[in-house]
Design goal:
alpha/beta, Rossmann fold, 11 helices, 13% strand, globular
Length: 238
């Protein structure tokens, strides 16, 4: 793993496809989604919610359906876990949309998307696909990307499908993300991975990423934009 540097400029220019995660990359949305999860599970004991919060943070890119399945099946061990999961997913979706209504896309993300061009940009997320497309339409982001893809299809399968449909080799792409699933997809397919730390909630990023190949670390969106030879979006800086 290395910190992103000026080589990223050439890497971005050469990439035939640029995959972007959404939560923590295009939107500072990890925090309100974690809060939404806790709100959904507010009737359960605090130790269980804390265990779920840790699982949630360290499984960025995993669909909400599988996260709540873990809670009700593995932590609570309820015989009715399927119905409980489905009800939780529905409530979470309502809270998630409320959260998006109060935020705008990150300036750094918009700057990079505008520079890269829509034909190369594909959003791949663990969030619900229908919800994502609604948010992108409401925030007028649709013209900046060629596809917006999400759950219930797993992120790995989403990326594989796009590569096959467009006839692009994995090594001729890159993925910008902030979670464990982003990293796992890149390691599996040998896609260059740019980890964006600024809005990530991944507790064990340093340890895990240090063992990976073709990984670059960007502390902030401004760092990434500077490496790409673009003007820094100071509104993104903490």
């Amino acid at each position: 793993m290395r910190f992103v540097d000026t080589d990223f400029r050439a890497q971005l220019r050469a990439a035939r496809l640029v995959f972007l995660d959404c939560d923590g990359v295009i939107f500072d949305s990890n925090g309100f989604k974690l809060a939404a999860m806790d709100r959904v599970l507010s009737d359960y004991p605090e130790p269980l919610r804390e265990s779920m919060a840790s699982f949630w943070r360290n499984n960025g890119g995993l669909s909400r359906r599988l996260k709540f399945e873990h809670f009700f099946r593995d932590l609570v061990q309820s015989p009715d876990w399927e119905n409980l999961r489905d009800a939780a997913v529905e409530r979470f979706g309502e809270y998630s949309l409320d959260g998006f209504s109060a935020v705008e896309p990150l300036p750094g993300a918009v700057a990079l998307m505008q520079a890269a061009g829509p034909e190369r940009l594909v959003v791949v997320s663990g969030a619900d696909q229908a919800e994502l497309r609604q948010v992108f339409q409401q925030k007028q982001l649709d013209p900046l990307v060629s596809e917006v893809l999400g759950a219930p299809t797993k992120k790995l399968d989403l990326v594989k499908t796009v590569l096959a449909a467009r006839g692009v080799r994995a090594r001729d792409t890159l993925l910008i993300g902030d979670g464990a699933r982003d990293f796992e997809v890149c390691q599996t397919l040998r896609i260059p991975f740019i980890y964006l730390h600024q809005y990530s909630e991944w507790d064990h990023a340093v340890e895990v990423l240090s063992g990976g190949s073709n990984v670059s670390w960007a502390q902030t969106w401004d760092d990434l934009l500077r490496a790409a030879g673009l003007a820094a979006a100071t509104a993104d800086t903490d």
